[in-house]
Write a structure and sequence with these properties.
With 333 residues, this protein is an alpha/beta fold. The chain has two domains: 158 residues, Medium-chain alcohol dehydrogenases, catalytic domain (Quinone Oxidoreductase, Chain A, domain 1, Alpha-Beta Complex); 138 residues, 3-Layer(aba) Sandwich (Rossmann fold). The strands form three sheets. Strands 3, 4, 5, 6, 7, 14 and 15 form a seven-stranded mixed sheet that branches. β1 and β2 form a beta hairpin. GO terms for molecular function: NADPH binding; oxidoreductase activity, acting on NAD(P)H. This is NADPH:quinone reductase. It comes from Chitinophaga eiseniae. Pfam families: ADH_N, ADH_zinc_N_2.
């Protein structure tokens, strides 16, 4: 098989295309021909050798896929060669998804949502599972007031769709350019609920917009300075969902001083605990919402076809915040 291999931690130019053996699949695994893969911030964080790199077990990065089952192990059920599927492989596959093939436990795999092309379907698993986990563990109510950082991002936009589909509309978020603002507007957020994070004193402007009401839920998908803003506007004994583990020391101080309930969101926690069925089961539920039209598929940008150059370009775009509300995708054609 062909794969894009990371030669060493560092800059985006560390990727090289290389021929590797087709993975040997086990009795409880599917061998999948990958047709498209999507990029996630954890990819470049791993490439840089940051904390996330501890979860690497292959020099081939990439954590989600859309593809076709080539072969099924004897202990698998529900899949056959030729089936179109999606999966959040995380670090549990034979290799990452910057490759033409992968062997993966069948419990992590879900049939492709109806009528979606591979290039769109591949953008669902990672961001979709993160948003779905956040939504389900939050138990937010329609009367709750929410602040979400990075609402136009892959996870943020999925979460906005889920919240609004379930009657939760008092949702404020941030954007830093007109493209992101347009994405949020298309999701149904009015202009008064979209704040420019580049301006001064975001917390003051948010409280002005809410009539000086502190929020019941702060959800951080970005980290850094804006996580401090999320903690600032959170009410006493209210709840904070941390999706990044990139909050600052001041963020943690503010949350402690407010007696906040902190909800840590981690998809790979289930892989570490070897609860692999969580991935397939939750992806199936998410696919059902997509099939029913309850939520719409993510917006994608196909960066290019399978090559080291495409991977490099996607990493640069993610690091420079140039995704503009779209999930970046690489096709294998």
């Amino acid at each position: 098989m062909q794969a894009i291999v990371l030669n060493g931690f560092g800059a985006p130019d560390q990727f090289r295309q290389k021929e590797l053996p087709v993975p040997v699949y086990g009795e409880n695994e599917l061998l999948i021909e990958i047709k498209a893969t999507a990029f996630n911030p954890i990819d470049y964080q791993m490439r840089q050798g940051r904390r996330e790199s501890q979860h690497m077990h292959s020099p081939v990065l990439g954590r989600e896929l859309a593809g076709i089952v080539v072969a099924a192990g004897a202990q698998t059920t529900g899949f056959a060669p030729g089936d179109k599927v999606i999966a959040a492989a995380g670090s549990k596959g034979s290799n990452g998804t910057y490759a033409t093939h992968i062997a993966l436990n069948y419990q992590m795999v879900t049939p492709l949502p109806a009528a979606l092309p591979f290039a769109v379907a591949t953008a669902i698993p990672s961001a979709g599972l993160t948003a779905f986990q956040t939504f389900r563990r939050m138990h937010a109510l329609p009367e709750d007031l929410l602040f979400l950082t990075g609402g136009a991002g892959a996870v943020g936009s999925f979460l906005v769709k889920l919240l609004k589909a379930h009657g939760i509309h008092q949702l404020f978020t941030t954007a830093g350019n007109e493209q992101s603002r347009a994405v949020l507007g298309a999701l149904g957020l009015p202009p008064g609920q979209i704040l420019d994070y580049r301006g001064p004193d975001v917390a003051h402007r948010l409280l002005a917009a809410t009539g000086q009401q502190y929020v019941d839920w702060a959800i951080d998908t970005v980290g850094g300075k804006i996580s401090e803003t999320a903690a600032e506007v959170l009410g006493l004994n209210k709840s904070y969902a941390d999706i990044t583990f990139l909050g600052t020391e001041r963020t943690r101080e503010l949350l402690f001083d407010k007696g906040a309930h902190v909800l840590n969101i981690s998809n790979y926690a289930y892989a570490v605990a070897n609860q692999l069925s969580w991935y397939g089961q939750n992806l199936r539920e998410l696919a059902a919402l997509l099939n029913a039209g309850t939520i719409t598929p993510p917006a994608v940008q196909v960066v290019g076809s399978f090559s080291a150059d495409t991977v490099q370009q996607a990493h640069i775009m993610m690091e420079n915040n140039q995704t503009y509300g779209r999930k970046l995708v690489m096709t294998m054609d």
